[in-house]
Amino acid sequence: MTRFRHVLAVRGMSPLLGISLLARTAITADAMALTMYVVLALDMSYAAAGGAVASLTAGVALGGPLLGRLIDRRGLRTVLVLTIVPQIVFWLAVPVLPYVILLVASFAAGLLMVPIQSVTRQAIAAMTTAGQRQAAFALESVVGELSYVVGPAVVILFAASISPGVVAWGLGAVIVAGGAAIALLNPPLRAADEAEDEAAERPGRREWLGARMIAVLTMGFGVAMLLSGVDLAIVATLQATGQLSWAAVVVAVFGVTSVVGGLVYGALPRPMPTWLLLGLLGLVTIPAGLARDWPWLCVAMIGAGLLTAPTLSTVSDAVSRLAPVSVRGEATGLQASAASAGFALGAPVVGTAIDVSMPAGGFAAAGLAGLLTALTGYLLSRRSPAMAAPAPVRDTSRAGT
Fold first, then answer.
1. What pLDDT digit, counting tens, does each position of 91-125 carry?
2. Are 337 and 186 a contacting pair, CB within 8 Å?
3. Is the distance from CB of 53 to CB of 133 less than 8 angstroms?
4. pLDDT per position as a tens digit, 54-63
5. Nearest alpha carbon to residue 304 among 339, 257, 368
6. Among 46, 165, 271, 388, which lies 20 to 30 A Cα-Cα from 92?
7. What is the pLDDT of residues 267-303, one digit of tens each?
8. What is the pTM of this model?
9. Which residues contact 217 (CB under 8 A, 6 or more apart)?
10. Is 60 exceeded by the pLDDT of residue 307?
11. How big is the CA angle at 101 (ends 100 and 106), to the nearest 5 degrees?
12. What is the distance between the terminal CA atoms of the chain, rounded to a whole angstrom?
């Protein structure tokens, strides 16, 4: 735990992670909030709800690198103002929008989603030394897992007991509050010894978006696709056995073990390659399809859970190391886009595998997606051996600043 104490002792780190947890809990649940509104308030099908969610996700995927590039050029607070205002308008208007207009508005809201996740990652890279980043990004992944466990469950509970329209207002309020809090905190996105690089000429995209970065982004896409598919496979398995009501318990076990895995990984003395962690995650996911009831499925998901947060943290760490400081915003935006694309593609691919075979086929498809992208990352990293090398350690005298 000493490594985590040193990270949390960095000035501004604890409030940054706390604000990130609050805002990401709401952002993680935005798709569920739209689903509940379309199904319960508009009395439409889940397919229609999926259309609204797909529109929102497409906007997020396209907006990530654009907002990141704008942060690099114009600064954090400019982008936060540019994104907070549209979120206020969208979430206030959701309960009165007809479905067709909701589709268009969802895309715009996704395009201008408050970039809490990418800003948090940029700030962590700027606020920590190279020796602290393994633990710091492990904590960031733990924050993400906690938001995933809490956010959708809270939305489902309140949408069913109060009103999906009121839930949309509350969710929007939390997103806006998170963005405003980040603007007030104004975390540094450049370290003191990186300030001179900020004024340097912006490198061309070909100079930094090479084989090494593509390998990392591919693996970020792969782990998101795997996780999206696992969620669907859990539901399909328990529905087939008449135990669907236990799905929340299985998902909770998955999330809690991921938190544990992230904390253990952050305390390790040295990092592991992303391709290795992702490959192991894919391997342990495939046999989860052998479970036939919820207690055994909980047991089967422990291995995958323990590897999830570590894999996610190594992706973030690698992106922060590979991106030149003047394009770090765009690079973290591309990472967010890769994850959004993976989540969007994982459910239909795994769903098709389930439809043509059985629920166990869903776990197999998700695991194979992880293995395939891990292999791709490994092959690209062999072409670029420097990818696995840690960044030079900066002067640690600023660790507590």
1. 999 999 999 999 999 999 999 999 998 999 999 98
2. no
3. no
4. 899 889 989 9
5. 257
6. 46
7. 888 889 999 999 999 999 999 999 988 999 999 999 9
8. 0.82
9. 319, 334, 335, 338
10. yes
11. 105
12. 20
Q: How far apart are CA 214 and CA 82, in angstroms?
A: 29
Express each pLDDT in 308-355 by its tens digit.
999 999 999 899 888 888 888 888 889 988 988 888 888 788 888 888
- Give me the CATH code for the 201-387 domain, please: 1.20.1250.20
CATH number of 1-189: 1.20.1250.20
Among 242, 327, 342, 259, CA closest to 293: 242
Cβ–Cβ under 8 Å, residues 338 and 221: yes
Token duo for residue 309: 């947060």
CA distances from 237 to 178, 228, 250, 298, 342 (A): 36, 15, 11, 12, 22
Question: Which candidate, 284, 147, 271, 276, places its Cα nearest to that of 226?
Answer: 284
Q: Which residue has the tokens 């996704």?
A: 110
Nearest to 113 by CA among 142, 82, 146: 82
Domain ranges for the chain, please list them: 1-189, 201-387
Each residue of 61-92: pLDDT tens digit? 899 899 989 998 888 999 999 999 999 999 99
What pLDDT does residue 201 have? 64
Six-digit token pair at 308? 């999830």
Both structure tokens of 59? 């906007």
The answer to whether the CB of 3 falls within 8 A of the CB of 132 is yes
Shared fold status for 1-189 and 201-387: yes
What string of H, E and C letters represents the secondary structure of the chain?
Answer: CHHHHHHHCCCCHHHHHHHHHHHHHHHHCHHHHHHHHHHHHCCCCHHHHHHHHHHHHHHHHHHHHHHHHHHHHHCHHHHHHHHHHHHHHHHHHHHHCCHHHHHHHHHHHHHCCCCHHHHHHHHHHHHCCHHHHHHHHHHHHHHHHHHHHHHHHHHHHHHHHCCHHHHHHHHHHHHHHHHHHHHHHCCCCCCHHHHHHHCCCCCCHHHHCCHHHHHHHHHHHHHHHHHHHHHHHHHHHHHHCCCHHHHHHHHHHHHHHHHHHHHHHHHCCCCCCHHHHHHHHHHHHHHHHHCCCHHHHHHHHHHHHHHHHHHHHHHHHHHHHHCCHHHHHHHHHHHHHHHHHHHHHHHHHHHHHHHHCCHHHHHHHHHHHHHHHHHHHHHHHHHCHHHHCCCCCCCHHHCCC
